[in-house]
Amino acid sequence: RKEYSVQPQIKSQRAEPELSLSQVPSPIENVSGLLSLVRSIHRKSEMNLLSFRMSKAARELLTPQQLTEKVSFCMIGMNRGRFLKTSISFVWLVVLFGCLFVVLISVLRLPEVSNSRKAIGLYHNTKTRESSESSSIGKFGEKMIEMLPEDLAFTVFVPSERAFERDLRLRKNESLVEKMNDDTYAVISRVLGFSAVPRTIITDDVSSGEEILYDSISGFVLYISKDVDGMLVVNRVRSEKVDIKRNKIVVHVMDGVIMDAEFEESVQPDDDDDEEK
């Protein structure tokens, strides 16, 4: 018989070392550990974000064909924007030039209208003045002026219609029925010889209180002076209208007939004729 020696198995228990006060972690060490933990977590999150962005960029990588299509699409969009801007600018330019054209036409046409109105008014005033001057000169005075050349300077002291009738016994209704007869023509031409001067004489050429002398085309001396009211007095015959111009001819309508004594006697009516009348 074998004898087994039984030895009691005793569990080895390690005695835990006792902690001393020097081995207890301080609060500062706990904070530093916490900070290091936070830093490590932050580094991991940054790495995860970087990897995510890289994976996203990798997913968005385009092939050359896709890149060309995308660039073409962008160029088309840019061209469309430029075309739209160009079209709007062109429309604005057309509108601007149209407005400027309308303004220029309006400005250029306004003076023409005013000038035409002025011309019409001037023409109307000229015609009115000519008609009034013709009526003041009379038919016999017009006949006297027609005997003179229009391209030469003359001054004619024309008798008025009343002076022709009063001093020369000439009435336009009797003497100018169809045309002047020989006697009427002779009388008018003789009066023209006495009252026409071969030069221009207007009222401004004669000073007040001064008397000037001129020879008529027949050699008859004319004594010309100016009255206080500006009217001319020729051989004691006073004027009614002065400074009427017909081309180069100046006409003064007189309240009487300028003639010499011999012609005045020849045109005076006989006493026998007056008694018979």
Describe, in plain words, how this protein is organized in 3D.
This protein has helices at residues 27-59, 64-146, 161-167, 172-175, 182-195, 261-267, 271-276, and strands spanning 154-159, 196-197, 211-215, 221-226, 232-234, 237-246, 249-254. Strands 2-1-7-6-5-4-3 form a 7-stranded mixed beta sheet. Helices cover 56% and strands 14% of the residues. It is α+β, with helices and mostly antiparallel strands. The protein contains 7 helices and 7 strands, in the order H-H-E-H-H-H-E-E-E-E-E-E-H-H. It is rod-shaped. The protein has a domain at 138-270: FAS1 domain (Roll), CATH 2.30.180.10.
What are the key terms here?
FAS1_dom_sf, FAS1 domain-containing protein, 7 strands, alpha+beta, transmembrane helix, transmembrane, 277 residues, 7 helices, membrane, FAS1 domain, seven-stranded mixed β-sheet, disordered N terminus
Structural class: alpha+beta
Please indicate the percent range of residues in DSSP E strands (runs of 2 or more).
Answer: 5-15%
Rough shape?
rod-shaped
What's the architecture of the domain at 138-270, going by CATH? Roll
Number of strands: 7
